[in-house]
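Notes on consecutive records. When two proteins share a document, each keeps its own sequence and its own token line. Never mix them. Below: protein one.
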Amino acid sequence: MMRICLFLTLVLTIPATRVQSVRWPFGLGDESLPLGNNYGEYQLYGSVSYLHPGIDIMQFAGSPVYAVKAGVVKAVLTTSGDYHWRVAVGDSAGSGWCDGWLYAHLERYTIPVQVGDTVQVGDYLGDLVWWPVAGFHHLHFVKIRNQGTSWFSDWMFIANPLDELTPIDEPDFPVIEDARDGAKFAFCYNNTHVYFDPGAPVSGPVDIISKIADRTIDPYWRLVPYRVEYSVFNDSISVGPLLSFIFTDTLFWFENVHVVYQEDEVCQSQGDYDFRNFYFIVTNTDGDSVIEASDWLLGWNTQEFPNGTYWVKVTASDRYGNTDSDSMEVEVENYFSVSGKVGLSDDPPDSSGSILHISGIGLEDTTDQTGSFVLENVGGGSHLFQITHPGYVPLDTIVQVFGGPDFRFTLDIGSYIRGDVNYDQEINVADVVYLVNYLFRNGPLPVPYFGGDASGDGAIDVGDSVYLVNYLFRDGPPPGGN
């Protein structure tokens, strides 16, 4: 059975370099502000889940909101009633594409600007609306992109504001929690909700699920981290750390929620005013910073790893650089039936007798007349295949085994004496007898095959017997060398 071994490391690192610098939009001086939701956070209010497209900065209702960058007002609108009035300020005028900032949940009657107005850094944009959920008065704030002189809420969400806000300073570390009772992580077959039992070996393509939470100054609201990565390793193999997710770039907020988060009875992500549980599918990644629909197909292909015990490690970081890492052991068990053929370079009509051996796991098979072999119960990963046949150069080759592959190997002729038909390293009358038996009495093939071509004419026939008799008893020419 698999033993679960955990360790925890907490590391404080310096903040990462920011794209540019903007001040927090409340004009409160040099201080970081508490957050109630984070960029890319799992959300479910109603029937459809999504990735939260912005950060929610917590402040008192009625707090004045100020522009963080100069620009032109592109939108003053609501997306759903009085609580959702917002102002979008683009970086430039005109109808072309440009970046901008979105300030949402403003009190409608306090908004002093209209579409087309120019604003400067620090200009007043309105007061924060009173939010109907107790204790959740907030400004939804995000960087966006659109085109046109007027924008109509069809903008793209292009960046995490925490990449540009300054200062960023918070004491709270992310926390990696148990994904299942008694297990730090959960494992399921890739792109499914079929789980391996806790402690059971894993096989095939696998998704690794990690439950992670964070806070940003606010003592109540659980958030998601900024960055997640994972690695798999043991004493001989190390893969990673691989970037799972970094919530920084363009967010396809409706399309890709299931790329990031697991939603089922075992690992049920939740994100509302009552519950915050975030289960990350850390293996859904191609290693870049963009969360794409195609990443959903990816996973940890355990078939490419030799059977054995591995550590799986997950690391979560916030925007300031606080980091939490946690790990557990997992056993990999994959077995395949490996088949193929061994051919001989001089292409005799009978290729039997080659011996194929997999070094390190003690599996061996002797090929049949066509050179075919079948090896059962071969573990995944890289193996040293060793193939031998009398009279031929042994072949050692590293083979990557996964998914029941079929292989072809060819052995080249080694050091042999032409005319040494029975491969005993000398030429004598026994070779004549061996050759006659082969030609006329269905005897075994010469080994190697063209060792029996004493005359060197590219064929094995009665002429080779005559050639050998002449050489042995009548002072004829010696058989040709290879």
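Protein two starts on the next line and is unrelated to protein one.
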Amino acid sequence: MKIAVIGTGYVGLVSGVCFSDFGHDVVCVDKDPSKIAKLEAGEVPIYEPGLEELMAKNVEAGRLTFTMNLAEAIDGADAVFIAVGTPTRRGDGHADLTYVMAVAEEIALAAKHYTVIVTKSTVPVGTNRQVKQVVRKANPDLDFDVASNPEFLREGAAIDDFMRPDRVVVGVQSERAGDIMNDVYRPLFLRDFPVVITDLESAEMIKYAANAFLATKITFINEIAALCERTGADIKQVSKGMGLDGRIGNKFLHAGPGYGGSCFPKDTKALARIGQEHAVPMQITEAVIKVNDEVKRRMVDKLLELCDDSFNGKTVAVLGVTFKPNTDDMRDAPSLTIIPALVGGGAKVRVVDPQGKHEGEALLPGVKWMDDPYKAARNADLVVVLTEWNEFRGLDLSQIAEHMVTPRMADLRNIYSNKDAKRAGFDSYVSIGRAPYEASADQED
């Protein structure tokens, strides 16, 4: 099959590369000449493990190309995927569909034969019917169908998610479109991965409902973690005990500094807005948004307490700034709340992140970027573990504590323990949902 993918951002590029690895002929389209130039040179503009190698393999095989020419790309295509951004619209929290509708019109004007126009971008319920109207208005004589095919890719594990999905969701209005979408995903169907065929609205809703539910799980365990800190319970043990219940499961029950990234913040806000527009308030989702913001602010209070109620003049080493490991994505990361509070309070902040500098330099002014966590922690007053990169999971804590002015650690991902901190010689160690360790209190006991 021939497939065109419009947009070479995270979703578009991963999808295009993976489709080509299925054996389809894929053309990826973008209006940004610098992006296309990089891709044609074999450079991947985003960080995603394994993507560069998979892209090179399929380019070499002749199945994957890149262009700025949309008309050329969709000529002869069986399916055209729209994979452009749908950022949160300022003022009302709704998804901004400007790019989606603009691309839909371009496709309509350029298409010369039957094709399935597939929305891969995350869009509010009812959007695909709007896309159909836009296409019909721009080209009344065009023979086409519209389909919804939301993505469920985790950054840092996107290739595996695409190749071994929990499910593929496809919304269609005709058997003809359904047959083409089944052909697109035939390699997965043949390996017994479920392909769920629905109507357009159900496919759109599945995406929002799934992300809102996962965001709710994260926020729930973060609230329980706060309660654990007050009652003496251990959130790790609580999470394990909950997760062993098959009805709950252990995923997304890891307490931390709040969710971030490209999906959960945007999609929860959009779902809340959809509910308001249809007079069915999404009260749980609205509460999740509110509590998640409070969780991030509560992290600042933890750090402030460790710094004797003042950041002024303190040196703080922050390990990790991306919203999660194995990505360079900084969108809505907890670091964007926590680090500005440190800098604004007068702290000298040193930052270490394997991939965060590319975006972080512009988003986090006033910090010093370093490559070595040991050097960053030297003569520091506080070390903060903010993203659980593998590079930070096996640190020599004794070496870090030895060279700090005041050996104190805030482990906001719970990758260490009170026992680790005590053995390493830290004066204070705080984490999420667990009793803090203080050397003075320990000595008194």
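For the record: The CA atoms of residues 297 and 337 lie 7 Å apart.
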